[in-house]
Amino acid sequence: MAEYRKVPTASRPSTLQLPRMAPPHAREPGFRPFEDVDVRALAAEARRGNRPDPAEHDRLLEAASRGDSQARELLLNAHLDWVASAAEERRDRGLSEGDLFQEGALGLMAAIGAFGPAGGGDFEAACRREIATHMDRALDDEEAAVRDSERLARAAEDYEGAEIGLRRELGREATTGELAEKLEWTRERTEEVGRLVDDARRRHDEELLSYLDPPDPPPSKRPGNDRA
Question: Quick one: angle between helices 39-48 and 97-115, nearest 10?
Answer without folding.
Answer: 40
